[in-house]
From TrEMBL, chains A, B:
This protein's name: Putative phosphoenolpyruvate synthase regulatory protein
Keyword Transferase included in the entry's annotation: yes
Classification of source organism: Bacteria, Pseudomonadati, Pseudomonadota, Gammaproteobacteria, Alteromonadales
Binding site for ADP: 149-156
Catalytic activity: [pyruvate, water dikinase]-phosphate + phosphate + H(+) = [pyruvate, water dikinase] + diphosphate; [pyruvate, water dikinase] + ADP = [pyruvate, water dikinase]-phosphate + AMP + H(+)
Family: Belongs to the pyruvate, phosphate/water dikinase regulatory protein family. PSRP subfamily.
Keywords per UniProt: Kinase, Nucleotide-binding, Pyruvate, Serine/threonine-protein kinase, Transferase
Length: 269, 269
């Protein structure tokens, strides 16, 4: 199996995203290795030695995705036995021409603290935790969006992802069995109706997830799951609340759809 | 201000990372706009019209970062008035040659559900939530790593980030004022000593964060913050627990350092 290295003087997140996006186009298995914080000549040399050892053991060159801007470290990595893919070098010159400004390598710290947005993100994570699962219904004023749905339809991970990645303040509220008879919007949600965004899920997937948590319970029964999903979807339609089915979606996709459909601003930049 | 578009037929996360990494090299401000799920010819045409309108209004071409693999949609976006940056096209051919296999555009869904790893990530998020802030000290057996530190040193966001992005199971345990007299490792931590990873923080930053939460409290006082930081750092050194100072680190950097220093496997792929 081909070994792939993702290397950077920072977190290596950019190298990983860059490499994964490309390798996902190839129907093959790879052995992945990430080496972050290669900030010194010594660490670069050790990394080069490791790559060379892997190339020699495997009898084929490793693929090396990196984003170094420090020329000293970069030259060491570039001289290894692996095949180098560095997307920065292809795009920096054209961008310099278009923007009429010289790139400034020292600014290259994509995933470090950005004063303007970082506290927003941490505040949003704390907000999501404090307003998870209907634990507080008095702070909805501050929410950018309120995710609603039955238990285990994806509200909590989606709220946390939106907060962590984009600094969006997301509360979430679960409809439980107690709400199901004559399901309607409680007053504390109704007054924030424009912020509501519904999640739904295929009943069979919901059964599987709930069985994993509370096997053989009424909570996980086919009848209960089907009824809950039917009732919330009816409510979303009646109240004209936008909603998506999360069955086949990752948290990344759910988050992107919520942002796209609500037109919410992202605070990451 | 130059407008930048990040466009994709999926979440557009890859386009954003790609564009941000490049633009972070330029000491300028940009106006950012993300357009996700451009999956149809109609949506591509609407997107092109929007880009053209922005270019015309601004009197300068927008920058357009995209990663389309569907040729029909891609040609429409490529024909807009913006300047196109598409990193896939530069690297697909060289990779095809190196791997001796043809790229398979349909597989391009970097941020969708990957059966093998996705459930791991959601399980890890649930684990992090259930084992946050010392709320449970009986599940440490299952932890990949246990973050320890004083209150507000970054344990919770870091735990959630490691879980969400990498599927790593992280518990965290706070040392509180009650622990401070003759601070030592409690037995339930001592038996998992190899999993312990310490966070520390500069006292002044800790004071600022705690003041934001509980102004004028003993909890936020300079004396208290300095004492707690001094005591935990002494403990880390005595017990030879690896630790990092989070004062100037983002959650991405904390996570990358924890992974790098513990040698933990990432489950994302």
């Amino acid at each position: 199996m081909r070994t792939v290295f993702y290397i950077s003087d920072g977190t290596a997140i950019t190298s990983e995203v860059f490499g994964h996006a490309l390798l996902s186009l190839f129907p093959m298995q790879f052995q992945h290795r990430t080496i972050s914080f290669v900030e010194t000549v010594e660490k670069a040399q050790a990394t080069k030695a490791l790559i060379n050892k892997v190339c020699s053991q495997n009898g084929e060159p490793a693929l090396v995705f990196h984003t170094f801007v420090n020329p000293e470290v970069r030259e060491i990595i570039d001289s290894c036995d692996g095949v180098i893919y560095n997307f920065l070098e292809h795009f920096v010159k054209p961008l310099e021409q278009e923007l009429q400004i010289t790139a400034c390598p020292k600014a290259h710290r994509t995933h470090s603290i950005n004063k303007n947005s970082y506290d927003n993100r941490i505040d949003a994570v704390n907000y999501a935790l404090a307003n998870d699962d209907g634990s507080s219904i008095t702070n909805f004023e501050q929410a950018d969006v309120i995710l609603i749905g039955v238990s285990r339809s994806g509200k909590t991970p989606s709220s946390l992802y939106l907060a962590m990645q984009y600094g969006v303040k997301v509360a979430n509220y679960p409809f439980t069995d107690d709400d199901m008879e004559n399901l309607s919007l409680p007053a504390f949600l109704k007054e924030h109706k424009k912020k509501l965004f519904g999640l739904t899920i295929d009943p069979q997937r919901l059964i599987d997830i709930r069985e994993g948590r509370l096997a053989h319970s009424q909570y996980a029964s086919a009848r209960q799951c089907r009824m809950e999903v039917r009732e919330v979807e009816k409510l979303y339609k009646q109240e004209k609340i936008p909603f998506i089915n999360t069955t086949k979606l990752s948290v990344e996709e759910i988050a992107a759809k919520v942002l796209s459909q609500t037109g919410l601003q992202r605070y990451k930049y």
